[in-house]
Amino acid sequence: CQNTSWDSQQHSSEYPTDAFGELEFAGFLRLSCDTPPQVIYTLMTEHWGLPSPNLVVSVVGGEGHEKIKPWVRDILRKGLVRAAQSTGAWILTGGLKEGVSRCVGEAVKDHGAAASTVSQKKVTVIGVTPWGLVHNRQQLVNAQVLNLLCFVPLQSVKCQMLLNAA
């Protein structure tokens, strides 16, 4: 067994995507690195019904096993979600359960639990994760594609990514 890390060039091939749907709490889309942003935006706003963002905040860094400083975690927990809610922002993360992405996920989860009333605005968080890092990704691949490919004109999934919007 060779100990090599996943590489999109080496471990991917081009074919029409058959991974599209909705998770229990969010939509997801498997797409190519070269998918036009307008196609993704249209899917998220028209098909998923997400409101257009007034601001896009990208939270990156701190991935891996290093500890996130407590003050950074507090800012993410208290300030980021509140700022996103008040401005109508979309928050973009790496979508992983580690580092800063994990802190953002926990903050949004806490916000969702506390904001159970209809008067609270939902916070839109989008995790963009390499397909090779998605746990149990085979369960997201549809056995029968039906007409899904007709809606989303994706031609290839060479650099496969998973777009997960909550």
Automatic annotation (TrEMBL):
Looking at the record, the residues that make up the TRPM SLOG domain are 26-146
> Which InterPro entries does the protein's record reference?
TRPM (IPR050927), TRPM_SLOG (IPR041491)
A Gene Ontology CC term for this entry? plasma membrane
Query: Annotated Gene Ontology MF terms?
Result: calcium-activated cation channel activity; ligand-gated calcium channel activity
Q: Which PANTHER family does the protein's record reference? A: TRANSIENT RECEPTOR POTENTIAL CATION CHANNEL SUBFAMILY M MEMBER 4, TRANSIENT RECEPTOR POTENTIAL CATION CHANNEL, SUBFAMILY M, MEMBER 6
The protein in question is named TRPM SLOG domain-containing protein
Q: What is the originating organism of this protein? A: Xiphophorus couchianus
Its lineage opens with: Eukaryota, Metazoa, Chordata, Craniata, Vertebrata
